[in-house]
Amino acid sequence: MKKITFTALFLMICGSAVFAQTWEYKTVTVIESIIPSGIGRSRMISTEENRDFKEFTSTRTEEDNDRNKSDRGEIRVKNFDETKLLNFFNVGGIRFQNIAANDAVVTSKINSLAAEGWELAFVNSGVESYSGPEDDNGIFITRYIFKRMVE
After folding, report:
1. Mean pLDDT of 3-21
2. How far apart are CA 130 and CA 46, in angstroms?
3. Handedness of CA 127, 30, 74, 50 (dihedral sign)
4. Backbone angles phi, psi at 69, to 5 degrees
5. Cβ-count burial of 146 within 10 angstroms (0-12 exposed, 13-18 middle, 19+ buried)?
6. Which of 4, 94, 118, 125 has its CA 20 to 30 A from that of 144?
7. What is the mean pLDDT of residues 140-148?
8. DSSP assigned state of 77
9. Per-domain residue ranges for the chain?
10. Phi and psi angles of residue 31, each rounded to the nearest 5 degrees, phi first
11. CA distance 76 to 122
């Protein structure tokens, strides 16, 4: 009986420690140009600065929609890492070497963050693609969301 009570107490203490864990999250955004002729810019962006979304959030009603304009300049982050990447296209078309090079750089960033205790939690991607001669815009964006336990 004592063993069962001790075991149950031990499991409750350990279990509550697991549920009391707090996580912090970090986002790394990769933007790769898919503009023909290689004239776009491709970058990997990450920041060490934090922002509290509550400081930039307001509740709006129909009556005060026009009065509730906030200064978006305060939201901007001026200190961030910008890693250059290669564009998907050049004058000759799609460049598979560029894609492989970008993969190597992004993998290096992921490995670096993993060594710092970050764990890849989510990946989200989207594309605004080139849709013909009259559309000269296009990006492929991937957001990597990392998490680690706050100690």
Report:
1. 64
2. 26
3. positive
4. -80, 130
5. buried
6. 94
7. 95
8. -
9. 22-150
10. -115, 120
11. 24
